[in-house]
Request: fold
Amino acid sequence: MSTWAEQRRADRTAERNADRADRVAERDQDRKDAAEAARLKEKQTAARAAAKTQAREKRAKWRREHAVELLIYPLAVVSAVMAVPAMALFGLDLYDNPSGLVLPLLSELGVWAFAIALEVSRRRHPERSTVKLTAGVAVFGVMAFGMNFAHGLERSLLAGLMMGSVSIAGVLAHQFTVGAPPRSRAERARARIERTAERRVAKARRLAARQAVVELAADGTARLVYVPGLYLPKGRKLEAATVSGLPVPVDEWDAALADLLAGDLDPHVSGASDHDLDPIPGADLGGSGGVAVADPPPPVDPTPPKQATRTRTAKQVRAAALRLARKNGKPVSAEFLRRELRIAPAVARTLRNDVNAELYPNS
Reply:
């Protein structure tokens, strides 16, 4: 009997302990749920505050960026409020039917349509020409002023001037500030330089297309073949040009000659007879037998020499350049060597430096 009673007491104690543990767990869960709800509410409040701050900053930024528009467009509204009803009544009286009420759509809306189109084109496509849109603004502006001036002229000249001025005041303010905002001196100078460069490039491409060689394929299609290089547009053609400090393109023979001249060459070694080496007749009168004579040399023929048909070696050209420099008695220029020896400008410059350094080191 006592064992049964003790068992019941133990069971009731266990039940009370279990109930107590359940209540403690429920209270802990309630506290956790309340804390989570508080955190979620705080997070939502912070998100709403951040969104409001961001929206406020966005509105402030928009107002700063469109401060001019906020001042100009109210002027346009005032101009329209004054001009549209007056022009509608004028159209009704002029046409003597209700269709005249839409006359403001032509006089007022027309100029604004071109003004807005001009602004959108300049913002979205700044590289495009806006000459036609600008002309449209000018033409419809004159029309709006003329119609309103004619309406006001029925009363007096002053009324005509006032009504015409009110009609175009808004669009004029828009064009002076928003449609075509003023630019700084540096921006205007940069724009002029860019326009000059664009015109020069367009002219060069036009002349290059005119001078290009046409490559015709077997199927009848054709394409233009251009010669790369440096050119100057002169008149109706492109002329080859050289720029100091830039490499000058040379043909294969000139390139090989330049490579040979870059080596260590003996200026006194001759690879051919004097007749072949010296492009100037009479400059060196050595014969094939090598016999010296006491007679004076014959006079030099002033007739310009004909271009040699045989290929000259680098040694021959260098020897000829040395003789020209000795005969000249002073340092020679690259243009002088190029003209006398009929060589490329790059080779002439290399020879000039080499010959002048050897014969006139102190000059």
Observations:
- Residues 2-65 form the longest helix (64 residues).
